[in-house]
Amino acid sequence: MMRRKLVAGNWKMNGDRASLAELDAIAAAAQAAPQVDVGVAVPFTLIAAAADRVPTLSIGAEDVHEADHGAHTGCVSAPMVREAGARFAIVGHSERRADQHETSHDAWAKAAAAHRAGLSVILCCGETEAERNADRAERIVQAQIEKSVPDDADGSWLTLAYEPRWAIGTGRTPTPEDIAAIHAIARAKLRMLIGDRADGVRILYGGSVTGANAASILALENVDGALVGGASLTAAKFVPIIEGAAGL
Ligand code: 13P
């Protein structure tokens, strides 16, 4: 099964109105690489301005609440980000698991909420360094997938992202063999959960992806794209990753 590559940026808690200028060149690079899907998740405050500025580029939210509306002070729902112009949402990111104590069950509820609102979903999983050192990475990722993938998931709206926590923002990446091994295990787990629909679900790698390593990581079996943090903040760093994906 051929799956289109997806290169998604995640600005995290970075960026302001001036930073939106970076999106102009990113959108141009995306248009020059029609064989690759490109998206950028930005802080809630920038979604509407980003979507208005670069209508051809898929803009995403970095999180959504699991409810559509209600008494949840300070939270933002999937219908809200959809109305602001988001086309996708990241859920279950390891920084939310660590900082906001979110669980895989929370990620499941958020994925369902985003899908209900008509958003595509990038659902994150990945082990900590202690879990990797204890040889538990595979079991952790399997358990996260089992608890967070909705029953009705398919590749038309769900993308999985494997992001080992110790590789995020550190300049360290797993070996190609380790990335391929986890992605194969993730695919097998998806198949157990949703059958043949698993073949259509893209599995991204995230964690210290750069223009220098993107092409070799994205060439690995079952690696269908990249989720990029630091290197998505500027066009100068993000465009080479798009180009690396397009060259495959
Ligand atoms: P870095 O690319 O900065 O390592 O971040 C990866 C990430 O967490 C993307 O969601």
Describe this structure in words.
The structure is a single chain. With 248 residues, this protein is an alpha/beta fold. The chain has a single domain, classed as TIM Barrel (Alpha-Beta Barrel). The chain has 10 helices and 8 strands. The chain has helices at residues 22-31, 47-53, 78-84, 94-99, 104-116, 129-133, 137-148, 176-194, 214-218, 235-246, and strands spanning 5-10, 36-42, 58-61, 88-91, 120-125, 158-162, 202-206, 225-228. The chain has an 8-stranded parallel β-barrel, surrounded by 6 helices. Strand 3, helix 3 (78-84) and strand 4 (88-91) form a beta-alpha-beta unit. Helix 1 (22-31) runs parallel beside helix 10, helix 5 packs across helix 7 and helix 7 (137-148) runs parallel beside helix 8. The radius of gyration is 16 Å and the shape is globular. The mean pLDDT is 97. The chain binds 1,3-dihydroxyacetonephosphate. 1,3-dihydroxyacetonephosphate binds next to strand 8.
Secondary-structure blueprint of this entry?
Layout: E1 5-10, H1 22-31, E2 36-42, H2 47-53, E3 58-61, H3 78-84, E4 88-91, H4 94-99, H5 104-116, E5 120-125, H6 129-133, H7 137-148, E6 158-162, H8 176-194, E7 202-206, H9 214-218, E8 225-228, H10 235-246
Parallel strand pairs: 1-2, 1-8, 2-3, 3-4, 4-5, 5-6, 6-7, 7-8
1,3-dihydroxyacetonephosphate binds next to strand 8.
